[in-house]
Amino acid sequence: MPEAPLPDPKRWTALIFIAIAQLMVVLDATVVNIALPSAQADLGISDGNRQWVVTAYTLAFGGLLLFGGRVADLWGRKNTFVVGLLGFAAASAVGGAAVNTEMLLGARALQGVFGALLAPAALSLLAVMFTDAKERAKAFGIYGAIAGAGAAVGLILGGVLTEYLNWRWALFVNIAFAVTAVIGAATVIREPDHGRNPNRLDVPGVILASAGLVALVYGFSRAESDGWTASITLGLFVASAVLLAVFVIVESRVKAPLLPLRVITERNRGGVYLSLGLAVIGMFGLFLFLTYYLQQVMGYSALKSGFAFLPMVGGMIVGSTQIGARLMLRVRPRLLMAPGFLVASIGMLILAQIKVDSSYAVVLLPGLILMGLGMGTAFMPAMSMATHGVRPEDAGVASAMVNTSQQVGGSIGTALLNTLAASATTAWVASHKTSPADLKNALFVNESAVHGYSVAIYWAFAILLLSAVLAFVLVDAEVQNTGEHADGEAVEDFAVPVVAH
């Protein structure tokens, strides 16, 4: 058996720059949310087009992630990483300098395109640079904390930039992140050439997967605005189901598939993608409702609202680096993921108790801390399991599946829970209204809104409980402290290589 190559001595420094890039991509999903009212007023964006500032990004990002993951496998993860960073920075510059609605929406779509290259390249670089079990646990602990906390950090950063500078800096700030990460990539990131996939790109697979995912994400977006039974909504869902079904058939027959079915049919990885996607549905819905609750009901400023999420960020960092990373080498992944999602669901249950006059310290603080601890603990082994034991040439696409499950989950969560909240609010108003004057009463309006938020958060609680059950039932891998694969294949056949000097 040949002697294993020495690990890259610069891998920990490389992790810093990979983490910076990942933080940029994740926080960009929420940093613009806080700045959106200012951008809308400045550029004269209509209420109908307002959602597209967010949707243009999520559509391009979610729809092209599998393509980005496979490009990383074919072209090289470092190359894809750098191109993704440069493109993201350029798109952010265009968006920050936007003079009209069309320019901003185009820039946001471009951000999504380059984010789809960048995100899977970042995660797969970790997979090929950290193969020692103990080091992998630490590296994925840090990465998991950033992936989980990035959205909340975006709310804080968006509040700071909007309040003290202006909304354009919510986009311009990406240039600083990207340039820093590019310099780091050029100087310290290296990857093994023999981990690349030598096959050609599966063009039919790219078209079918991208169109199917875009139809799915757009369908949920239209459900939020037009209703679940609208013909456009139903048509998009049917189109998505057909396109993705044809995609699976094509992938099972072509020589070099975009998504080798072995990546998702392996029980542990499939369980991670499913449970993580469901958990994100609940988490993204929470961000949406609590932001409205803090600003419209409790009267917080954008900046104060952002900082109100800090306990959850702290909980995620502790859960990921101190609980998940330390226990990952001692207990099976499902014994971290299932309890993690369960603790997060208890936090969600506490948050569902919000009232118009709730105390931050009594209701929101404990709920947010438990949410953070639980999600952080579960995210870390989930991120690691998603790429554990994959063939080197599949590392990029396996990484893309993690991002896809999160992105699609976030889009579904926002639309699904928002619709449930709106329906609950409408029903409450119908049963409590005594005269038309009630609709002009601030307390009545706030009580109806908070009832809707509470109902939606109860649904998010149920979704997180389901996520915990699925993680426990489906993820049955052993402790990740050896080079053994979940499917039992020998390490020397398919182990992700380390970088030799």
UniProtKB/TrEMBL annotation:
<feature type="transmembrane region" description="Helical">
    <location>
        <begin position="140"/>
        <end position="161"/>
    </location>
</feature>
<feature type="domain" description="Major facilitator superfamily (MFS) profile">
    <location>
        <begin position="14"/>
        <end position="480"/>
    </location>
</feature>
<keyword id="KW-0046">Antibiotic resistance</keyword>
<feature type="transmembrane region" description="Helical">
    <location>
        <begin position="450"/>
        <end position="475"/>
    </location>
</feature>
<keyword id="KW-0813">Transport</keyword>
<feature type="transmembrane region" description="Helical">
    <location>
        <begin position="306"/>
        <end position="323"/>
    </location>
</feature>
<dbReference type="InterPro" id="IPR004638">
    <property type="entry name" value="EmrB-like"/>
</dbReference>
<keyword id="KW-0472">Membrane</keyword>
<protein>
    <submittedName>
        <fullName>MFS transporter</fullName>
    </submittedName>
</protein>
<dbReference type="InterPro" id="IPR011701">
    <property type="entry name" value="MFS"/>
</dbReference>
<feature type="transmembrane region" description="Helical">
    <location>
        <begin position="408"/>
        <end position="430"/>
    </location>
</feature>
<feature type="transmembrane region" description="Helical">
    <location>
        <begin position="81"/>
        <end position="99"/>
    </location>
</feature>
<dbReference type="InterPro" id="IPR005829">
    <property type="entry name" value="Sugar_transporter_CS"/>
</dbReference>
<keyword id="KW-1003">Cell membrane</keyword>
<feature type="transmembrane region" description="Helical">
    <location>
        <begin position="271"/>
        <end position="294"/>
    </location>
</feature>
<dbReference type="InterPro" id="IPR020846">
    <property type="entry name" value="MFS_dom"/>
</dbReference>
<feature type="transmembrane region" description="Helical">
    <location>
        <begin position="360"/>
        <end position="382"/>
    </location>
</feature>
<feature type="transmembrane region" description="Helical">
    <location>
        <begin position="201"/>
        <end position="221"/>
    </location>
</feature>
<feature type="transmembrane region" description="Helical">
    <location>
        <begin position="12"/>
        <end position="32"/>
    </location>
</feature>
<dbReference type="Pfam" id="PF07690">
    <property type="entry name" value="MFS_1"/>
</dbReference>
<keyword id="KW-0812">Transmembrane</keyword>
<feature type="transmembrane region" description="Helical">
    <location>
        <begin position="335"/>
        <end position="354"/>
    </location>
</feature>
<keyword id="KW-1133">Transmembrane helix</keyword>
<feature type="transmembrane region" description="Helical">
    <location>
        <begin position="105"/>
        <end position="128"/>
    </location>
</feature>
<feature type="transmembrane region" description="Helical">
    <location>
        <begin position="227"/>
        <end position="250"/>
    </location>
</feature>
<feature type="transmembrane region" description="Helical">
    <location>
        <begin position="52"/>
        <end position="69"/>
    </location>
</feature>
<dbReference type="InterPro" id="IPR036259">
    <property type="entry name" value="MFS_trans_sf"/>
</dbReference>
<feature type="transmembrane region" description="Helical">
    <location>
        <begin position="167"/>
        <end position="189"/>
    </location>
</feature>
